[in-house]
Each structure stands twice: as structure tokens, then as C-alpha cells.
Amino acid sequence: VTRNASHALLLACLALPIGACSDRGAPPPPRSEAVHVAEATNAALELPVPTTDRLLGARHRGVRRVEIYAGGASPALAFRESIVVAGDGRFGLEPIEALTPVSADWEYVERVWARFSFRYRDFAVRDMGAFLRNWRLVDLGQTEVVAGRTGARYVAEREVGEPVRYELVVDPDLGLMLKSSKYDAAGTLLRRMEYESLELEVDLESAVWTESAIDETALDPGADLREQVGAALRVPLRIPQGFELREASTARFDDREWLRLVYDDGVEPVFFLSTWSANEEESAPSAADRLLSARLGPVTVVQTLRGAEVLMGVGAIGESDLADLVESALP
Amino acid sequence: MTMFDPCRTFRDRWFEREALDQEDWLAAHLERCPECRAWSQRVEDRERRLAALPAQPAPDELTNAVWGEVAFPELRIARAISSLERLAAPIELDARVAEELHPGRVAAASLGGLSPAAAPDVLERLVEEELADPEGHRAARFVGSLEPVEAPLRLEGRLGEPSGAPPRRRRGLVGATLSLVAVALLVVWALRGTGENAPPQRKLPLVVAESPQELDPLARGLALALGGFVEESR
Description:
The structure holds 2 protein chains of 2 kinds. By secondary structure, chain A is of the alpha+beta class. Chain A contains 10 helices and 15 strands. Classes of the chains: A alpha+beta, B mainly alpha. At the A-B interface, helix 1, strand 1, strand 3, helix 6 and helix 7 of A face strand 1 and helix 14 of B.
């Protein structure tokens, strides 16, 4: 975790969805999501899964317990956080207390990445069409009381690519996820989030909203990105099976222009970021070029440098898929 | 609900300061909090006075017991494991395992209280046939368990003589040849177009980073945030 305050702040915002960063009001749902939802069947529309719309639309306040596991029986990191959602797109997410030993800057880092955590950390259906194609939802026919609300129990399993399984408890009235546990292909628990308290009568006067500190320019992911920016962008040609481009934006950071693309399979996000310049000339890869990979917890990173140019892919998918994604953006 | 209390956190971490490597944070809090400064001075003073007390030798029995624990850790581990309470598997897991081992039985057991299902037609027919001719079915069932009787020598001799029937070896050879041809065709069909569907060869070598520090700070930050700020590799 970087300890440089301003650096971390900008990093976090650059990794955020455009709607969450640039708009202070209610961000509209991504265009492609609306298209897919419209195409889905009526039965699918009635699925009680927590979608990104419901995530932002269910007005409430609560305290959640979050546990992150690193292969052991007990969590490597556990903490409580407060959440308040206005129902109009505004939200606030703040750490309350750590329940495991943490570094001195833990609270600061959680605050800096709060927008990112709200959007991408926990289970949410980001696109109903892709979710229906790539995931299987099993209604266990059971209920569980979480934070005083009776939720229905579901299991969501990814059927395309590397298996991932979520156990969910969803409030059927709010479409709000009360509890979720994520497991990898081997059945190892990776992450758990659970509401400990939940109020629906919310006084927003005292709420502290999570704000943005960086300006991004939204791009239409469905149109030609190079035309929109007017530069020779590096855009991946080989996308992991089941994934689709959902968000696109540009931002200036660290004196460089960045292109930020977010793909997902309906639930799990994969990020592609690359620097670009309007004056840059195409160059063939040299002998010094290589793809550098690393695994941080359940997340894989593949990056490559071409002189001052940086291309990277980040996501909880296999190294080979991510390497294909990054390499396919090269000339 | 307990809110984040910097003084309580400071005092908890103070006792573990050598292991936690958080001197900067502790020193910063110490500087701005007079209560914790006074508290830490009292604790340090107490630690100093305790450390100055003359050491008392432990009884020999205790020394031997501790030495035994240290020298044979496997005994300690075995004792600890055997003392653990056996945890029951979740009901869902039990049900899924049972369904894997005996497909259909779990559902059948859970439906035990419902009205009985009709037997398959084939089972009904077999039972009816057996009931119609019980002696014949019993004889047929027990024939397989009778001790085989050796054939007379004269019959064995006749089996060795040439006959008009076509040799079975030649038919087997033709069958084997046809099978080989079929397998070869199947392999050729399966391999057809393999080169077209195989992923294109990677242009750049894929190298595993020796340390996450080799990554761009943005890539590292993004991966940590996505994984929940836990860096340990699985």
C-alpha cells in the first residue's frame, strides 16, 4: 500500500468509475447496462439480485463488518465500516475500526479507496445480460436474518472461465445485499461482508458523502474510442471470455494522460489502463519489452512498459487471460 | 458500537511496538496526547522496575516440563489437535455431498413424507412375470450358482477338429483393422484446424515479478484495493 497521500488519492480516483468520480449527483446507469436489461427476459428482470442501480438506489444507513481472507481460517484483515446511501446517487463509506492488526495508514487508505470499494469490492450485478450469460443463480429456498432484516439465500456461480462462487443473503424488498461471501475455485473463502445494523429511516443532514478529487472525461464504450479522444489509443483486442467493455474514460495523472477501460462478466470487473499521447508514434516492440505479472492476494496484475508508455491489466482472472488482454493492445 | 478510539488503539499497540513496526504512528500520537504520554511513562517505569527485580530460579519440575514441551513440539501439536472440538459440516454441504454420492436419494429422502411414487413400468412387469412362474424364475436364478461340470473327453476332441464355419481369427483381424482406420480418421478429424483455433503465440515473454514493488504504483494500488488490501499471495 502506497504511503504517499496525494499519490494514493489520485490513484484511487483514477481507478473509479466515471459516474462515481465526476458527477456529484445521481449518475445514470451505463448505457450498455440499460440495453442489456431491456433485452433480458421478464423473469430475469425480476431476479432479486443486487444490481448497481439498487446499490445506489436503496436509501439506508448501516454498519457493515468486512473480512478479507488470505488462505487462513481467520481473516487477514477485518474491520467495521459505516455506510449511508441517499438513494439519489450520493453515498458515504467510512472505516470505523479495525478488528485485526493493521498498518498505521490503514484508515487513511480505506478512506481514499472508499469510492472504489463501494463500486467494485462487493458482489453486485453490473450488467444483467452478461450476468445471465455467465453466471448461474441458485435460490436455496432458505431465509436468514441479517441486521434485523429477513433475507433470501442464494448462490451465484460463474460458469464461464475460472469458477467463482458467492453466497448471498438478499433483502427481497430492497434488492439490497445484506451479506455476501466470496469463494475461489478451490472453495477457499476470500471475502465476507455483512450488515451488522441497518436503518431505512435516514436523516441525511449529518451524512458525510464520499467525494471525488479528480476529473475524468467519460467516453462512450460503445463507440470508437480513438475517434472520441483523437489519438492512437492502445485498446485491447483480445478480451477474456465472457467479459464485455462496460466503462471507458480518460484522466490526467502523474503528468500523463491515461485511458481507463473497465470490463466485466456481469459481476467481476477487470481493469485496463494505458498511458497515451496525442503525438506518440507507433513503435514495434523491442527486445527489452516484456510482460511483467504478479499476484496480490486473489488479484492478478500484468503490465508492460514501452519506453515511457505503460499498459496494465488488473483483475481477479487468470494470468494468461490478462496477459492476452494487455498484449493484444500492442501494435 | 465502539467507535475508532486513537488512545485505546495506541495503548493496545504500545505493548506490541517492537513487533508491529509502527514507531512513526506511535510517536506522533505520543507527541499530541499528554494522557497517553503520561500513561506510557508509567508503563515504562513499571517495566523498568519489574526488570530490575532479582531473577528467581524456577523449580526443577517446571524447567523439565518446559524443556519437554520445547524439545518435542509434535507431542504438543498432537495434544492440541486431539483436544479440538469436531465441527459439524453445514447442512448444505452434507446435502451436496450426499447428492454427489447417491444422486436422487437426498431428494427422495426429503420427499419421504409425501405420497408414495409409482414404481417404474419395467419393475412392475418383472415382478408380475416372477409371480406368474415362481419355480421357473427360481431355477433360472440358481443356475448361475451351480458348480460347472467338466465336458466329456470325446466332446473336447470334437471341438479340436476343423469345421465348416469361417475362422473367427480372420473376422477379428478385419474388425481390428476397421477399428484402427476409424480411430485414425477420428484423430485426423480432431486435429483438423487445431492450428487455426490455437491462441496466437505471445509476442512478449511473460515474466513473474520478484516483488510487487516492481509494478507501477497505479497497478499495485488498484490490485490491492480490488483484493481488499491484503497482499499475501495464495
